[in-house]
Design brief:
About 40% of the residues lie in helices and about 20% in strands. It has 15 helices and twelve strands. The strands form two sheets. It has a seven-stranded mixed β-sheet. The protein has a five-stranded parallel β-sheet with strand order 2-3-4-1-5, with helices on both faces. The chain is globular. The chain starts with a helix and ends with a helix.
């Protein structure tokens, strides 16, 4: 089991506090394993196993508990039977809490009624909108869980005797091919099994977290919109471009429907929408955003190895890593040119250009030259798969694998 140290460090300051810890992210990115690691940490600190109550609401055995009243009754009975007058704290772990009808009411009640520390996971960002805002405003901390970073992927490979002795460049090549979904790293030598597993995740996300949860009436249209978004990763597009695309196929689809379906995909953490920003004015543009997929392996697993170009895959990797590091990510517009990513955190800015290879003078000028129009002293990077350092004019060039492993950007 790969220890997800970065996430644990985010959670650790809030253990044994009144704040509810909410882990969100796409299905099978490792939220359940992370909760298990937290529970093991508590046991190591001396917490009795009887005081750690764990429920996964996707297990059939817990189906009778999927209402607020039934779950509250269950927890009340368990705590009453165990504590026998003790004032000790109880630790409540609820996996895929969105399956419980009106879950927010019983969670709020637990917080008030018992001496407890509460941990939740969910696979839909709606969990953090009106529901939590109404009952738990200011009383929770959200931590988004992503697929494995390259560093976590390398760590997981140490546990696999078939690939544990591979070099960093070899492991990076595998990461490009198989992606970062945690279970894939354990079966990565079995390509067909990896593809089947990724297809299963994809279908589960579409069926359970998008179609069923949002009562989608036209699943075929949803899948076609997802296909379009997957094949246009890192390319700017708008709902009107999709409308024209469907119109050319003699199908009328409104802009509103397209935007709603894309919104549902984002709620299920399948896509990340990255807005564009005019760098000189800091104005966020409301059209022609870019979409990136939760893990670059999905397009290849669903639509074949040629689904995306290498440039799209590399951009997707950088985007997801930036989000994983809690950067506010935007696409930068400067005059008639574009900077792939403008990252901001704690008032500090980073600029990143991503390309496959700096194989010609024209490419070098395009990637480095755009920075001449930005008159500030924040770090500026060009990231590619070139083995030689081509840094110049104060602009840092990095190989992507080294950039992904770099502790600080």
């Amino acid at each position: 089991m790969t220890e997800r140290v970065g996430y644990f460090h985010k959670i650790e300051p809030f253990i044994n506090t009144d704040l509810i810890k909410v882990l969100v992210g796409m299905r099978r990115v490792g939220k359940s394993v992370l909760m298990e690691q937290i529970a093991n940490h508590l046991k190591a600190l001396g917490v009795l196993e009887s005081h750690i109550l764990y429920y996964n609401f996707e297990q059939l055995q817990n189906a009778p508990l999927c209402t607020a009243e039934a779950l509250h009754r269950e927890i009340q009975q368990k705590i009453t039977a165990i504590k026998e007058g003790s004032q000790e704290k109880f630790y409540l772990f609820f996996d895929e809490i969105q399956e419980v009808n009106q879950w927010e009411k019983c969670i709020n009640s637990f917080r008030i009624d018992f001496n407890c520390d509460i941990y939740l996971t969910g696979s839909n960002s709606r969990l953090l909108s009106g529901e939590l805002a109404t009952y738990l405003a200011g009383r929770y901390i959200k931590i988004q869980v992503f697929p494995f970073s390259f560093a976590e992927f390398m760590e997981s490979c140490k546990e696999n005797p078939l690939v544990g002795n591979k070099s960093i460049p070899e492991l990076f090549h595998r990461y490009l091919e198989t992606g970062g979904m945690p279970f894939v790293s354990s079966i990565q030598t079995m390509k067909d099994a990896s593809i089947n597993y990724l297809q299963d995740i994809y279908n589960s996300v579409i069926l359970k977290d998008i179609i069923q949860r949002n009562t989608i009436r036209d699943p075929e249209l949803l899948e076609r919109i997802i296909v379009y978004a997957l094949l246009n990763i890192s390319h700017t597009f708008s709902s009107s471009s999709l409308t024209k695309y469907f119109k050319n196929e003699n199908r009328c689809v409104s802009n509103e429907t397209i935007m709603n379906y894309l919104h549902f995909c984002r709620q299920a953490f399948l896509f990340h929408k990255i807005p564009r920003m005019e760098i000189s004015t800091k104005k966020v543009l409301t059209v022609n955003e870019k979409y990136y997929v939760a893990d670059h392996s999905f397009a290849q697993a669903i639509y074949g190895t040629k689904a995306n170009s290498i440039d799209q895959i590399l951009e997707n990797l950088v985007c997801v890593e930036a989000l994983r590091r809690n950067y506010d990510v935007k696409v930068g517009k400067v005059a008639d040119k574009e900077i792939d990513f403008v990252l901001e955190k704690n008032g500090e800015i980073r600029y990143i250009q991503v390309c496959y290879l700096l194989a010609s003078p024209d490419t070098i000028e395009r990637e480095f030259g755009v920075y001449r129009q930005i008159q500030d002293n924040y770090p500026k990077y060009v990231v590619s798969l070139d083995e030689f350092d081509m840094s110049r004019e104060g602009i840092l060039h990095r190989h992507l694998r080294d950039f992904l492993l770099q502790e600080q950007w």
